[in-house]
């Protein structure tokens, strides 16, 4: 890779989460430029941040080429990713730039997986799901290593802080999938999935079966043949706005709301012999965690730490990546 290509390009920078990602990159004084499809929002943001900017639509190959000229790593924060991931990944392959996004959509993980060989040939790392899934994937790998032959993992995500408008828009790409699990190494639909109790370190809670991304990402990092995922929602005191009118929703939780609660993740790994390991992650609430996580991964890349091809956060960096995320810890039980 050309040595002058040493910057992060943040596409979708003016979105709710994109702005948090920019703030974190700025806080760490990392070299970055920003981009998005609308000059009305990108230009003032670039001025505020004191960085260069690029305005182009996601399907504009020439726009990507110019914007990626000085970049070694893209952070795509423009979701729903069903509309942007393919273009962003192709741009990274064409321009020899490592790819990160903060997608929570299973289809984009599968797209990245399908581009493994092309990414290897291009000498780039392709990660989809480098937001909240960084600590999630590190937790699964960590817990799996606590047993001899991991056979099954059940993971639960306790979200705090409500959702951004962008997340609500993207949620149909998750909710519409039904309940998916990995069983004996294959992704399967489950008709009669049951709720499950998880201990998050501060009491037990009932969680709903929900396909989250570990069935692709944590399969990549651990190879555990049986993976089930669950979700538990903790809303801020104000509750959730009426989701019927998405455009009337606020951009996302404000700084005070984000600081008022924590994300908890729990993983239970069962050994082939029936032994169990149980670990929990305690981390900042969702959107803060996402921005801290994706910038931590980009920072590793800027330091030359990457593996080519399709990767998950933990397959690329091992569980140590969680130590790069401030105020985020694994607790063993
Ligand atoms: N898993 C995680 O860790 C995690 C955490 C947070 C967010 N997310 C995901 O991140 C995404 C963004 O969330 P958000 O809250 O930041 O949403 P948002 O405030 O609506 O921002 C979305 C940004 O993407 C841009 N965009 C959307 N569609 C585009 C397209 N087709 N072409 C070019 N740009 C496009 C928007 O540009 P305009 O302003 O021009 O429309 C905006 O800048 C969502 O999909 C959300 O689910 C995932």
TrEMBL record:
Superkingdom of this protein's organism: Bacteria
InterPro entries linked: NAD(P)-bd_dom_sf, Sacchrp_dh_NADP-bd
Species lineage: Bacteria, Pseudomonadati, Bacteroidota, Cytophagia, Cytophagales
Pfam families from the UniProt entry: Sacchrp_dh_NADP
Organism: Pontibacter silvestris
Protein name stated in the entry: Saccharopine dehydrogenase family protein
Residue ranges of every copy of the Saccharopine dehydrogenase NADP binding domain listed in the record: 8-127
């Amino acid at each position: 890779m050309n040595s002058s290509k040493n910057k992060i390009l943040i596409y979708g920078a003016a979105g709710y989460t994109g702005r948090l990602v920019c703030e974190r990159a700025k806080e760490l004084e990392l070299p970055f430029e920003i981009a998005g499809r609308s000059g009305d929002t990108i230009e003032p943001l670039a001025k505020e941040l004191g960085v260069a900017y690029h305005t182009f639509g996601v399907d504009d190959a020439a726009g990507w080429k110019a914007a990626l000229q000085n970049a070694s790593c893209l952070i795509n924060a423009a979701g729903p990713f069903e509309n942007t991931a393919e273009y962003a990944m192709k741009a990274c392959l064409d321009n020899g730039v490592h790819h990160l996004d903060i997608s929570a959509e299973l289809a984009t993980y599968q797209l990245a997986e399908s581009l493994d060989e092309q990414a290897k040939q291009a000498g780039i790392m392709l990660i989809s799901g480098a937001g909240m899934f960084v600590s999630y994937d590190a937790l699964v790998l960590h817990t799996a290593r606590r047993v001899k032959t991991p056979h099954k993992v059940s993971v639960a995500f306790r979200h705090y802080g409500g959702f951004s408008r962008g997340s609500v828009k993207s949620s149909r790409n998750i909710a519409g999938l039904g309940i998916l699990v990995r069983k004996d190494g294959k992704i399967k639909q489950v008709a009669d999935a049951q709720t499950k109790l998880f201990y998050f370190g501060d009491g037990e809670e009932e969680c709903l079966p929900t396909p989250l991304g570990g069935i692709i990402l944590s399969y990549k990092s651990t190879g555990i043949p049986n993976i089930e995922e669950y979700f538990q929602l903790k809303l801020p005191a104000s509750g959730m706005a009426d989701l019927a009118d998405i455009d009337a929703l606020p951009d996302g939780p404000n700084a005070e709301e984000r600081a008022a609660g924590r994300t908890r993740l729990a993983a239970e790994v069962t050994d082939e012999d029936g032994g169990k390991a149980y670990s929990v992650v305690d981390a900042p609430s969702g959107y803060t965690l996402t921005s801290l996580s994706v910038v931590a991964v980009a920072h590793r890349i800027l330091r030359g730490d990457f593996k080519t091809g399709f990767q998950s956060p933990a397959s690329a960096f091992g569980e140590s990546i969680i130590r790069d995320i401030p105020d985020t810890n694994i607790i063993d039980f």
